[in-house]
Amino acid sequence: MTQHEGGALPPFEQIVADHGALISRIAMSYEADPALREDLTQQIFLAIWQALPSFRADSSLRTFIARIAQNRSISFVARQVRLPPVAELNEGLEADEPDPEQKAMEASDRRVLLDATRKLPLPQRQVIVLVLEGFDYGEIAQMLDIAPNALALRLSRAKAALKAIMEQAR
């Protein structure tokens, strides 16, 4: 069995339980249509299942899974010919129960951010999604197979583009 940070990899069911939310958020950032997003998510899980035997633990399992999810999402989007419709952002997101006005403002902000992120070119979208998922710059550079200074430049451009798109949307 493949080794993982001092031991064998956990069962696939445990990997799904531990990393399913991460995979869902990555899929959501690439595909707005719920049915297509479900297809993408299943493709990601299948790709992870197939890739697990090659996991060598030179990075964390979370980084390994996120890289597979990113790569599969890019391939999936590249095959899509049409523009995806805008999804409801409340789907699958849990939040504390703020007052209705606060909830509406937060949902609107998330919708604007998600819509703006989807409009970014894929290389910029990748870095924004991974930063929002909490990966550090070293992990992101490793996942995307780019130099740290190239990552910094791409992230700077992505932030500027995201800001411009969001300002335009308001």
TrEMBL record:
Lineage: Bacteria, Pseudomonadati, Pseudomonadota, Alphaproteobacteria, Sphingomonadales
Keyword Transcription: yes
Family, similarity comment: Belongs to the sigma-70 factor family. ECF subfamily.
Domain RNA polymerase sigma factor 70 region 4 type: 111-162
Transmembrane segments: none
Span of domain RNA polymerase sigma-70 region: 16-82
GO molecular function per UniProt: DNA binding; sigma factor activity
Keywords: Sigma factor, Transcription, Transcription regulation
InterPro entries noted in UniProt: RNA_pol_sigma-70-like (IPR039425), RNA_pol_sigma-70_dom (IPR014284), RNA_pol_sigma70_r2 (IPR007627), RNA_pol_sigma70_r4_t2 (IPR013249), RNA_pol_sigma_r2 (IPR013325), RNA_pol_sigma_r3/r4-like (IPR013324), WH-like_DNA-bd_sf (IPR036388)
GO process annotations (BP): DNA-templated transcription initiation
Domain of life of the native organism: Bacteria
Pfam family, one: Sigma70_r2
Signal sequence extent: none
Keyword Transcription attached: yes
Name assigned to this protein: Sigma-70 family RNA polymerase sigma factor
